[in-house]
Design goal:
By secondary structure, the protein is of the alpha/beta class. The protein contains 10 helices and 10 strands. Helix 3 crosses helix 4, helix 3 packs parallel to helix 5 and helix 4 crosses helix 5. The longest helix has 18 residues. The relative contact order is 0.19.
Length: 263
């Protein structure tokens, strides 16, 4: 479903991706792990076509997303759901209005059709009672669930999760991951998830890829990764090394991504 072939990407002269390659099979969730600032979020943004590689290709269901644009690219993106780290909700819209937004913008559905679909999805994520609240009036966990509902409302085939539990306490973080696991079981989507919650994330994914020094160092099942003899993998899992790179050029803000998405 997703094939990443030898992608390279530099920001302001700093080489973030140095030939990344990996596959995600249809119906599979892949966890992308590695140190902060190493470019994991950059990979996700290449997959959805928000960034173009300096070299290499990203194939979605056999089509190179790096080579399409305009209406064709928009149609391809409609198959995706992308959960940003902060949720990226519209602060001036209620929970219901945020979730309804993609249907109002991208479909010709009648108001009653939209209402039925939005309420059904809000039920899935346990937010029906919060439908009239604004983002400032709800918790961080509810913001993440609202963002999740917003892209579920169009039943995407591919879901990308960028640190879905960042800033949440352990109990709420586990709730979000349990919800992703449940939705995957019900919907069978293909997914990629970036997270540092290794022990929890490993419970919901089928495959793990570790990004290190600009390339995928190893790929395997969660069990294979945990049992790896590679010292770099073991040091990362055990937390015995400070993996923070601190290159702000390797990560884009939501506003930068939004602007690129309009290009």
């Amino acid at each position: 479903m997703i094939r990443i072939e030898d992608i390279h990407k530099a920001f302001n002269g700093f080489q973030v991706l140095k030939g990344v390659s990996c596959d995600v099979d249809r119906g599979e969730i892949l966890a992308l792990i590695g140190g902060s600032g190493h470019g994991k979020s950059v990979i996700l943004k290449h997959v959805v076509g928000l960034l173009k590689p300096d070299r290499g290709h990203v194939f979605i269901d056999g089509k190179d997303i790096c080579q399409i644009k305009g209406t064709e690219l928009e149609e391809m993106r409609s198959r995706f759901g992308f959960l940003f780290q902060g949720g990226a909700l519209f602060s001036s819209l209620t929970v219901f209005q945020n979730v309804a937004f993609p249907l109002r913008e991208k479909t010709r559905w009648h108001d009653e059709q939209i209402r039925e679909r939005v309420l059904a999805v809000l039920d899935q994520v346990g937010l029906r009672e919060a439908q009239d609240k604004f983002p400032a009036e709800i918790s961080g966990g509810m913001i993440k669930r609202t963002a999740l509902a917003r892209f579920l409302v169009r039943t995407p085939e591919i879901m990308l999760f960028d640190e879905p539990t960042t800033g949440l306490d352990p109990v709420i973080a586990q709730t979000i991951l349990d919800l992703i696991k449940s939705l995957h079981k019900d919907l069978g989507f293909t997914g990629m998830i970036v997270s540092h919650e290794l022990s929890r994330v490993f419970q919901i994914v089928q495959k793990v890829a570790m990004l290190h020094d600009g390339v995928i160092r190893t790929v395997g099942t969660p069990e294979e990764i945990m049992a790896s003899k590679d010292p770099v993998v073991q040091q990362f899992i055990s937390g015995t090394i400070d993996w923070t790179v601190g290159h702000p050029s390797s990560e884009l803000t939501h506003e930068e991504v939004t602007n690129r998405g309009k290009q």
